[in-house]
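Q: How would the C-alpha cells look for this protein?
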Amino acid sequence: MTVNADPARTAAAPAASRPGLRPTAVLFDLDGTITHSGPAITRSIADALAAFGYAAQTPEQLLRFVGPPIRVGLQRFAGVSDADLEPVVAHYRAAYTERMLDVDLYPGVPELIAQLHGAGVPLAVATSKTQVMAEPILAHAGLTRYFTVICGATTDETRSAKADIVIDALTGLAAAGADISRAVMVGDRHHDVEGATEHGIPAILVRWGYGQPGEEDGAHAVVADAAELAALLGQPVPASR
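A: Here is the predicted structure in C-alpha cell form.
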C-alpha cells in the first residue's frame, strides 16, 4: 500500500520553512517521540550485556540501542554472538519489563495527541518496540484511547523493520475507515524516516528524541518542540496539562 509522496522531499528543513501538511492521518513512533524511554532501555541493555560478559558501553554508546529492533542493536553495536543472542534478549526484556512503565512523556506531546484525536485526525502508533510492550506503556500513560491502531514488532522480531510496522499501521487505519491519502509519520530516528519513505509518506523528525546529526536526511521537516510539530500538522499550540 502506497500513499501520496512528497516529490520535493530530499533534505529536511526546519518546520518554520515548510507549509502545513494538513494530514488525514498521523503515525507516531513511541520511544524518543512520545516517551522518554532512553534511561530504562539503556540500563536494561547494560544489565544484559554485563550478565553475559560483554564489554561495558558508555552512556552515549548505549543510546544507539534506542530505536532499532533489539536483536539488530545487540549484534551491530555490542557484537553479541548468534549463540548468545536469544538469552541476552530474554535478559534484556526481563530487566526492561520491570522499568518500562517508569518513563516520562515529552512536554506537549500527549496534549497534541489528544488535540489531534479531538479534531478527528485518525492516529496510529508505529514502533519497533514489541507490540506486547508498547500496549501497556501507552495504557499506563493514558493514551491508548486516542489511537485507532497500535502496531509494533512481533515478539520474535520476524516482523520488526520500520517499513513493516508503517505498512501495518497504514493497513490498520485503512481497515478502520481512515483516509490515509495524506498520512504523515512522526519519529526521532532515521529508521522512522526510511520506513515512511518506503511507503511514500512524509516523515517529520523530532529533535527531542535520540536521533544523531544526519538522521534527518530525507525527512520532510525537523521540529524542535511540540508547538512546532502542532503548527506543521495544522493544529494550534497544545495547552499544557
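The beta strands are 25-28, 35-36, 104-105, 123-130, 149-153, 183-187, 203-206, 221-223.

Residues 1-11 have pLDDT under 50 and may be disordered.

Upvote if useful.
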